[in-house]
Automatic annotation (TrEMBL):
<keyword id="KW-0378">Hydrolase</keyword>
<dbReference type="Pfam" id="PF26217">
    <property type="entry name" value="GDPGP1_N"/>
</dbReference>
<protein>
    <recommendedName>
        <fullName>GDP-D-glucose phosphorylase 1</fullName>
        <ecNumber>2.7.7.78</ecNumber>
    </recommendedName>
</protein>
<keyword id="KW-0547">Nucleotide-binding</keyword>
<dbReference type="InterPro" id="IPR058865">
    <property type="entry name" value="GDPGP1_C"/>
</dbReference>
<keyword id="KW-0808">Transferase</keyword>
<keyword id="KW-0963">Cytoplasm</keyword>
<dbReference type="Pfam" id="PF26216">
    <property type="entry name" value="GDPGP1_C"/>
</dbReference>
<feature type="domain" description="GDPGP1-like C-terminal">
    <location>
        <begin position="203"/>
        <end position="325"/>
    </location>
</feature>
<dbReference type="GO" id="GO:0005737">
    <property type="term" value="C:cytoplasm"/>
</dbReference>
<keyword id="KW-0344">Guanine-nucleotide releasing factor</keyword>
<feature type="domain" description="GDPGP1-like N-terminal">
    <location>
        <begin position="21"/>
        <end position="176"/>
    </location>
</feature>
<dbReference type="GO" id="GO:0006006">
    <property type="term" value="P:glucose metabolic process"/>
</dbReference>
<dbReference type="GO" id="GO:0080048">
    <property type="term" value="F:GDP-D-glucose phosphorylase activity"/>
</dbReference>
<dbReference type="GO" id="GO:0005085">
    <property type="term" value="F:guanyl-nucleotide exchange factor activity"/>
</dbReference>
<dbReference type="InterPro" id="IPR058866">
    <property type="entry name" value="GDPGP1_N"/>
</dbReference>
<comment type="similarity">
    <text>Belongs to the GDPGP1 family.</text>
</comment>
C-alpha cells in the first residue's frame, strides 16, 4: 500500500526518492495483462481512425461481446446493493495497487478494467471497502483531480459515468485512461457563464459545463460540487471528464491547465443502446470505442454528432440560469 504523498508530482520533481505514479501504474497493468488470465480479452494494437480531423475512433469488438453484463439502473441515487456485483468481489489479481491519503483508514484502490476500452484502462475506486454507491462526492472528485496533477502525464484522463449515465456498476468508481491523441473536448473554446463556470462553445455537439483548475486553485472540488449537487437534486444523469487541455479562455500561449467537464444528459435508463457504440464519457469527449468494423470504417462525423446530440440535456439554457445563482 502507498500513501498519496509517496508519489512525485511536477512540483517536486527534484525529490528523487518519490515514486513515479505513471511508471508504477503502467508496469503493473502490463504485468497483469500479459502474465495473468484476469482480462476477458487481450488489448493490443487497436485500429484507429480520425474522423473529420478530430474524432478518435478505435475498433474494439470484444468490448461489446465479452464484457460483464451491466447492472440495471433506474435511479441516479440508487442505493448500493451488496448482493449485486461490486468491486469488493474482484480477484486480488485485478488490483494494481492500493493507497491512502492522510490515514490508513481511508483506503483507495486502482483496479484493472478486465474489459478494457484501451491499453491501461483501469478503475479508481475511492474508499473501496466503504461500499459507496456510484454517486459522485466532493472528496472523490478531489482525488481524481489530484491524480491528474500527481501523474504529470498529459495522456492520463479521469472519467465518471453517473447512474443512468451509463455507469455499469453501482459502486463508486472512476475510469482511468491513457491516450496519446488530443481529444476535441480538450481544445474546444468555452463561453463564460459566471464566476468559475464556463460552458463548451455552441459548435460542440453536446452542451457541457467546464471548470479550469490549476495547482493554485483553492478547493476546486468544493467549487465544482455545488453544481453537481444541483444535478443530483434534480435527478439529472451526468458524465464527467477530467483532462489536461487548453485554457477555457482559448489562450493557447499559456501552459495547459486541467479541464473538468460536466455533461448533464438524458437518462440511459430503459433506453435502447446502439450495437456499434454507446454514448458515455469517452464518446462525449470525442473518443469512440467502436464495436462494429463496418461502422468503424464508414461512419461520418455528421453521424457521430447526430448520435451524441440524442443524449443532450434539452433544458441546458434554463439550467445555466439556475447555476448562475450559485456563484
Amino acid at each position: 500500500m502507498f500513501k498519496l504523498q509517496d508519489f512525485r508530482t511536477s512540483r517536486n520533481v527534484c525529490e528523487e526518492k518519490k515514486l513515479n505514479f505513471i511508471n508504477i501504474y503502467k508496469t503493473k497493468w502490463d504485468e497483469i495483462h500479459y502474465k495473468s488470465d484476469v482480462f476477458r480479452y487481450r488489448i493490443d494494437n487497436l485500429r484507429e481512425r480520425i474522423v473529420d480531423g478530430k474524432y478518435l475512433l478505435q475498433l474494439n469488438p470484444h468490448r461489446s461481446t465479452k464484457r460483464r453484463t451491466p447492472e440495471q439502473i433506474h435511479d441516479i441515487c440508487q442505493p448500493f446493493d451488496k448482493n449485486k456485483f461490486n468491486f469488493t468481489k474482484v480477484s486480488r489479481d485485478e488490483i494494481i495497487f492500493t493507497f491512502t491519503e492522510d490515514d490508513d483508514e481511508n483506503e483507495h484502490a486502482i483496479l484493472v478494467n478486465v474489459s478494457p476500452i484501451s491499453r491501461y484502462h483501469s478503475l479508481l475506486c475511492p474508499l473501496l471497502k466503504r461500499c459507496l454507491p456510484q454517486i459522485l462526492t466532493a472528496d472523490s472528485l478531489q482525488l481524481g483531480i489530484d491524480i491528474i496533477f500527481l501523474s504529470d502525464d498529459r495522456d492520463l484522463r479521469v472519467g465518471f459515468n453517473s447512474l443512468c449515465g451509463l455507469a455499469s456498476v453501482n459502486h463508486l468508481h472512476y475510469h482511468l485512461f491513457i491516450e496519446n491523441n488530443v481529444l476535441p473536448v480538450e481544445t474546444v473554446k468555452c463561453n463564460h457563464i459566471k464566476g468559475p463556470v464556463y460552458c463548451l462553445s455552441d459548435n460542440y455537439p453536446v452542451p457541457a459545463f467546464c471548470f479550469e483548475v490549476t495547482p493554485q486553485t483553492v478547493n476546486p472540488s468544493g467549487v465544482i460540487f455545488k453544481l453537481i449537487e444541483v444535478l443530483l437534486n434534480k435527478s439529472i444523469a451526468h458524465n464527467i471528464f477530467i483532462t489536461s487541455g487548453q485554457r477555457v479562455t482559448g489562450d493557447s500561449k499559456g501552459e495547459e491547465i486541467v479541464r473538468v467537464i460536466i455533461w448533464p444528459r438524458k437518462s440511459s435508463s430503459g433506453a435502447k443502446q446502439l450495437s456499434a457504440f454507446n454514448v458515455a464519457v469517452c464518446e462525449l469527449s470525442g473518443w469512440f470505442p467502436v464495436y462494429d468494423i463496418h461502422i468503424f470504417e464508414h461512419i461520418h462525423a455528421e453521424e457521430l454528432e447526430s448520435e451524441l446530440k440524442k443524449w443532450k440535456y434539452e433544458n441546458f439554457a434554463e439550467l445555466c440560469e439556475e447555476i448562475k445563482e450559485l456563484y
